[in-house]
Write a structure and sequence with these properties.
- By secondary structure, the chain is an alpha+beta fold.
- It has a domain of about 170 residues.
- It has 10 helices and 22 strands.
- Strands 11, 12, 13, 14, 15, 16, 17, 18, 19, 21 and 22 form an 11-stranded mixed β-sheet that branches. A 7-stranded antiparallel β-sheet has the order 2-1-4-5-6-7-3. Strands 8-9 form a two-stranded antiparallel sheet.
- A hairpin with a 4-residue loop joins strand 6 and strand 7.
- Helix 2 crosses helix 9 and helix 3 runs antiparallel to helix 7.
- The radius of gyration is 26 Å and the shape is globular.
Length: about 450
């Protein structure tokens, strides 16, 4: 009896030890997974949020009437006005009717006050109805792809809401309409509120088509009162740059890419620092570009573009060293892989890398991320944080009219003001970045 009791205690003790070991392993493994970018799963709500961001335009244009347009690049996602516009679009898609397809007539379209979603790439209509959760064959059967959505509240006794899908490359305008909508008043009221706050002594925009300029497409041209436009310069900043904490700072921005930061191999090459383990290689280049590669394939599951975009967004949002606001500027697909391109917005202007001149990394956007079967396998970004300088004020002396005098307008797609272009091969920290006129020619798009 004593022997059996002792044996039972031994068995119980061994069992408790095994359970404790299993718990420790589980806790360690879970912690490891939480710190690794690729094994951290997003919630269903996060995935829906990320997919909705795919349809967030890179700029929201408000047609105030009288050939005056307000353009907003900043903080568009989850913006109150955007939420109202999205709700209105959803109502027209769900309950409206297809009116017809015509060639684009900008003078007619821009005659009415409206909201315009302007995208920097073309969106497939199937993706649109998936994100809006409106399986409407009237959209997908008529519209192939588009790069603008225009919502027009018609001030009539019927309170119509008109929705236009614009395909500028094909010169097509797809028109949908709901004959009576309670949201008509809300949309009209939002435009009125923007107009009340509007001050044309500051920057606003005019339509090239309305004033009769012979651009092939409509261009929104910046305009201001007087002969000068004042703005704040920006500067690239890296906290470690002026002290001796280089490896500590860079290391803290790199350890998040590894499942166990205690087992990272480090080395120094001529042009870069290298950090790696058995699956991941991270390079930090002398021109402050970080490149991440994952060589472990964790799934063979086939994914669509929205699932890949969700993985890309989840990855980027976990990078605490991304401080500047960014937007999706485009994507490309090749050999089952999708690469998403993101650029920065600062002071309501786009920051442009020197995309016409190759840098040593061949990086043309602030962030580039490649996803395969839902797994990010390559991630490249500029490591700089850009900040506006309130005490550094500069001016633009030339107007768009001065610029086009020396141009063949028929060969120009767009003219706009941008910060940059910046050159990654230069020392950005000791220099200021200015607003400049950007001329986008047809061959460059």
């Amino acid at each position: 009896m004593i022997f059996n009791l002792k044996r039972s205690k031994d068995i119980l003790l061994i069992t408790l030890i095994i359970v404790s070991i299993c718990q420790v392993i589980k806790l360690w493994f879970n912690d490891s997974l939480n710190r690794n970018f690729f094994y951290s799963s997003s919630s269903i709500n996060d995935i829906k949020t990320y997919q909705a961001e795919f349809l967030t335009p890179y700029r929201l244009i408000t047609n105030l009437g009288g050939n005056k347009f307000n353009i907003n690049y900043s903080e568009l996602y989850n913006n109150k006005i955007k939420n109202i516009i999205d709700t209105s679009i959803r109502e027209v898609v769900k309950n409206g009717e297809y009116i017809g397809t015509t060639n684009i007539n900008w003078n007619e379209i821009l005659k009415e006050k409206s909201f315009i979603y302007d995208y920097s790439f073309y969106i497939n209509s199937n993706i649109f109805v998936d994100i809006f959760e409106q399986k409407n064959n009237l959209i997908t059967s008529k519209v192939d792809k588009f790069n603008k959505i225009i919502l027009i509240p018609e001030n009539s006794e019927y309170d119509k809401l008109t929705l236009l899908f614009i395909n500028e490359n094909e010169n097509l305008c797809y028109k949908y309409q709901i004959k009576k909508s309670d949201l008509n008043y809300e949309i009209s009221n939002q435009i009125k509120n923007i107009y009340v706050d509007f001050n044309d002594s500051n920057l606003y925009y005019i339509s090239s088509k309305i004033i009769g300029l012979p651009f092939e497409k409509n261009v929104f041209l910046p305009k201001w009162k007087g002969d000068k436009f004042k703005y704040n310069q920006i500067q690239a900043n890296i906290d470690y740059y002026l002290n001796q904490e280089f490896l500590t700072y860079v290391g803290s921005g790199i350890s998040m890419f590894f499942s166990d930061p205690n087992f990272i191999w480090q080395d120094k090459k001529d042009d870069f620092y290298i950090y790696s383990d058995e699956n991941v290689v991270v390079k930090y280049y002398n021109n402050n570009v970080l490149e991440y590669r994952n060589y472990k394939r964790v799934t063979n599951k086939k994914t669509n573009i929205l699932e890949d975009f969700s993985s890309a967004m989840s990855f980027i949002k976990r990078d605490n060293f991304i401080k500047n606001e960014f937007y999706l500027s485009g994507y490309s697909q090749e050999n089952g892989r999708t690469t998403f391109y993101f650029d920065y917005i600062i002071n309501n202007f786009v920051l442009d890398l020197n995309s016409n001149n190759k840098n040593s990394n061949n990086l043309k956007h602030a962030i580039e991320i490649t996803v395969e079967n839902g797994v990010p396998i390559k991630y490249v970004k500029i490591f700089y944080v850009f900040q506006s300088l309130p005490d550094k004020v500069n001016v633009i002396n030339k107007t768009w009219l001065d610029i086009i005098n020396d141009l063949n307008i028929s060969n120009v797609n767009n003219i706009n003001l941008i910060y940059g272009p910046i050159n990654l091969e230069q020392d950005l920290y000791n220099d200021y970045t200015n607003l400049n006129w950007n001329i986008e020619k047809k061959s460059e798009k």
